[in-house]
């Protein structure tokens, strides 16, 4: 199982445990080394270990050791190298005298030195602070939105730096352990270089040259890791094979200080500067510039110190402290970029942190106030057992207060610190309240996509709902395409599609990029609607529909995804109730009245026409050659043909006219206050509109043309032989429909 598939809490625990163990080891070695130190610096010269410098007030100075002394023996053991001295120093103990035999001005002197100096608490403190700062960056970024490609890079980079600061030093340790430590240091350096170069090329967004040449991303990784391996090899070869090819022992440090670090610093600064210069939005420019400001102190330190050493200078001891302080600027800049300039979109995390800090603090204050104020009274009333009742009562009250206090503080925090998000939540509350007032699914759908578009500043919003009759996802409303102009079979999607099943099982918004490889059909729909996020609308029992969102300028933040999930659950209930209500009267595929409902409406209009002596007409319409289309292209295309035909018919009639699906590919139209001649004119207009606008484009690019045949019949009290019932009126229209088919179809009879 991949490490990145672990729960994030477990990932954080693994990183934290490694940092804790390494720094604990460093602390242990540092304190042990302080117990063994004497306070002098030695160099190997002409085969002798020479005292180069002695710290004032150190044990070596108090014992009389002076610069220029040659160390001959320690505890009666000959000393000819640094390794010989280190082996003896490992046996030193604080306060226990060590016998030194030194050569000074040609004379041998015996000195007794008591080991033990004060630990370098400043160095330890800076290391601890730097380790903590970078680990906190890793910890916070670890819980950023998973879809952000910068998240993993920044986590790994921060962890690598924290590990480097935590590496123990073995001044008197075995040579193999010291070598392992140094190899780890060089490899970590290369890893950090690779990660930081890739990271800065993505701030605020992926660099254009990286988009045009994706292989350069692997090149940056190879550059950093290659540099680390070269440094490790340059260190190990002279250590394990002295004199090999004449390589100097200091080769690795020379390469590090004069090639790798300066090159790394210059590359990072140049990349960040170019990213800031080319940023499209002011917010992105601020992100890149802020990270540049955080990186600049370290880059300047590297360039200045390298130049100084290149001209023969020797860095003072305090330069290590300065380097640690310079490196602290980066995590500070990252935190500011996160909280001030929305780098990695941490608003959700900040809101949760503020909320639960405020709630916890308030509840603790209430608890101690209750205990403090009530203890005296209860003790006076019920004696020594007061504390048990007091704590129990206070705990019960805290449980009752938690939910209302949380809601109140959430609203206060949103209003004060995040007014934009508060306004967004209020808009969604209003949307949820008003949605059901639209009554029918079609106007509900149109209102929903328009409001989601406005609330989330997302121009492309499409709603697909499940047709319970055939388990197809049918597009009901969209701001991404013109349904009138682009109505084709791509608007239908099987509920059994693997991508649909995956997003329904997830139950949360899913990035389109994760679904496209799962299903070609879903990929085609997502491309058609320009969607980059899919939100499942899930009811209590099953999937109700999908909300496809795209075109949002900024990436989706966790808070927005949470709001979308809550909205989707509410919308699912409202739409499901509306669907159940319409199921008895409305055909789920076409959105027209069902046979029973349209006949009921016809009967009502018949009664009114007969009572008041008013004209009434009906038309029977049939899709031409529907069965061959259904047989050749399948039911999905057949359903699209019916839906398209129904859409044209319903748009072209008056609001007082009635359109219903009579059965199969037949439609019944009722025209109140219209005689047969007028109905014939309307029917001809409908035939022409279907012929012009009625077509379905298949995924292959082929276009299926739609035509209809119509039969018209009317009721007029003044005419001879009027129909005696609404059923007879329908039969006359059906008979004339057969005449239209016999006449070659795509016509109106009589």
Query: Percent helix among the residues?
Result: 55-70%
Strand content: 5-15%
CATH superfamily heading of the largest domain: Rhodopsin 7-helix transmembrane proteins
Count of strand segments: 19
Number of discrete helical segments: 24
Largest sheet descriptor: 6 strands, antiparallel
Q: Which fold name corresponds to the CATH topology of the largest domain?
A: Rhopdopsin 7-helix transmembrane proteins
Please state the structural category: alpha+beta
What is the molecular shape?
A: elongated
Label the CATH architecture of the largest domain: Up-down Bundle
Query: What is the CATH C-level name of the largest domain?
Result: Mainly Alpha
On the 0 to 100 scale, the average pLDDT is: 82
Span from first to last CA? 73 Å
- Overall number of structural domains: 5
Radius of gyration: 40 Å
Features of this protein?
Pdz3 Domain; Rhopdopsin 7-helix transmembrane proteins; alpha+beta; 24 helices; 14% strand; 750 residues; elongated; six-stranded antiparallel beta sheet; 60% helix
Question: How would you sum up this structure, described in words?
Answer:
The protein has 24 helices and 19 strands. The chain has 750 residues and is of the alpha+beta class. It has five domains: 79 residues, PDZ domain (Pdz3 Domain), CATH 2.30.42; 225 residues, Rhopdopsin 7-helix transmembrane proteins; 70 residues, no CATH class; 160 residues, GAF domain (Beta-Lactamase, 2-Layer Sandwich), CATH 3.30.450; 155 residues, Alpha-Beta Plaits (2-Layer Sandwich), CATH 3.30.70. Strands 1, 2, 3, 4, 5 and 6 form a six-stranded antiparallel beta sheet that branches. Strands 9-8-7-12-11-10 form a six-stranded antiparallel beta sheet. Strand 14 and strand 15 form a beta hairpin. Helix 5 runs antiparallel to helix 6, helix 13 crosses helix 14 and helix 21 packs across helix 22. The protein starts with 7 loop residues before the first helix and ends with a strand. The mean pLDDT is 82.
């Amino acid at each position: 199982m991949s490490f990145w598939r672990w729960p994030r809490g477990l990932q954080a625990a693994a990183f934290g445990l490694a940092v804790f163990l390494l720094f604990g080891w460093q602390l242990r070695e540092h304190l042990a080394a302080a117990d063994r130190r004497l306070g002098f610096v030695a160099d190997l010269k002409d085969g002798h270990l020479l005292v180069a410098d002695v710290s004032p007030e150190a044990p070596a100075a108090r014992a009389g050791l002076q610069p220029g002394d040659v160390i001959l023996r320690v505890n009666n053991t000959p000393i000819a190298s640094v390794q010989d001295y280190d082996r003896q120093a490992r046996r030193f103990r604080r306060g226990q005298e060590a016998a030194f035999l030194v050569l000074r001005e040609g004379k041998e002197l015996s000195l007794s030195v008591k080991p033990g100096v004060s630990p370098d608490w400043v160095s330890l403190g800076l290391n601890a602070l730097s380790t903590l700062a970078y680990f906190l960056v890793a910890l916070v970024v670890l819980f950023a939105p998973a879809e952000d490609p910068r998240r993993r890079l920044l986590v790994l980079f921060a962890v690598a730096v924290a590990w480097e600061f935590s590496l123990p030093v073995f001044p008197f340790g075995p040579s193999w352990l010291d070598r392992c430590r140094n190899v780890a240091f060089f490899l970590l350096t290369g890893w950090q270089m690779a990660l930081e170069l890739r990271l800065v090329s993505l701030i605020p967004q992926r660099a254009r040259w990286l988009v045009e040449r994706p292989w350069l991303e692997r090149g940056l990784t190879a550059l950093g890791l290659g540099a680390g391996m070269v440094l490790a090899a340059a260190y190990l070869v002279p250590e394990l094979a002295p004199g090999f090819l004449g390589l100097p022992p200091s080769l690795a440090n020379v390469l590090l200080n004069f090639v790798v670090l300066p090159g790394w610093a210059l590359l990072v600064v140049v990349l960040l500067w170019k990213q800031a210069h080319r940023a499209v939005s002011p917010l992105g420019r601020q992100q890149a510039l802020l990270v540049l400001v955080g990186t600049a102190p370290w880059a300047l330190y590297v360039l200045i110190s390298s130049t100084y050493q290149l001209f023969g200078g020797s860095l003072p001891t305090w330069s290590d402290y300065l380097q640690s302080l310079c490196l602290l600027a980066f995590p500070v800049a990252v935190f500011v970029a996160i909280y001030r300039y929305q780098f990695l979109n941490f608003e959700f995390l900040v809101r949760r942190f503020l909320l639960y800090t405020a709630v916890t603090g308030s509840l603790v204050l209430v608890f101690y106030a209750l205990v403090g104020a009530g203890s005296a009274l209860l003790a006076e009333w019920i004696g020594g057992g007061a504390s048990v009742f007091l704590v129990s009562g206070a705990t019960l009250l805290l449980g009752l207060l938690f939910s209302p206090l949380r809601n109140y503080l959430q609203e206060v925090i949103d209003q004060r610190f995040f007014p934009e998000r508060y306004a967004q939540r209020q808009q969604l509350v209003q949307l949820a309240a008003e949605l059901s007032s639209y009554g029918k699914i079609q106007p509900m759908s149109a209102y929903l996509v328009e409001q989601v578009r406005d609330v989330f500043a997302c121009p492309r919003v499409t709603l697909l709902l499940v047709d319970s009759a055939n388990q197809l996802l049918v597009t009901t409303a969209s701001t991404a395409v013109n349904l009138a102009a682009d109505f084709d079979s791509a608007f239908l999607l099987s509920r059994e599609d693997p991508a649909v099943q995956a997003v329904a099982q997830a139950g949360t918004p899913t990035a389109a990029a994760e679904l496209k490889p799962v299903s070609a059909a879903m990929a085609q729909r997502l491309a058609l609607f320009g969607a980059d996020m899919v939100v499942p609308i899930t009811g209590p029992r099953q999937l109700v529909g999908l909300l496809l969102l795209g075109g949002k300028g900024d990436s989706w933040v966790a808070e927005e995804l949470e709001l979308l999930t809550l909205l989707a659950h509410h919308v699912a209930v409202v739409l499901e109730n509306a669907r159940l209500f319409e199921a008895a009267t409305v055909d789920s595929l076409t959105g027209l009245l069902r046979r029973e409902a349209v006949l009921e409406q016809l009967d009502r209009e018949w009664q009114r026409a007969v009572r008041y002596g008013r004209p009434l007409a009906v038309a029977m319409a049939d899709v031409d050659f529907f069965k061959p289309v259904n047989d050749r292209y399948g039911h999905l295309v057949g359903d699209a043909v019916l839906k398209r035909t129904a859409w044209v018919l319903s748009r072209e009639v008056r609001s007082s006219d009635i359109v219903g699906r009579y059965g199969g590919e037949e439609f019944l139209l009722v025209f109140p206050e219209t005689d047969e001649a007028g109905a014939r004119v309307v029917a001809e207009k409908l035939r022409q509109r279907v012929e012009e606008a009625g077509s379905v484009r298949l995924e292959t690019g082929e276009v299926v043309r739609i035509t209809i045949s119509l039969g018209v019949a009317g009721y007029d009290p003044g005419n001879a032989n009027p129909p005696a019932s609404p059923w007879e009126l329908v039969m006359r229209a059906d008979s004339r429909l057969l005449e239209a088919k016999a006449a070659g179809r795509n016509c109106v009879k009589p």
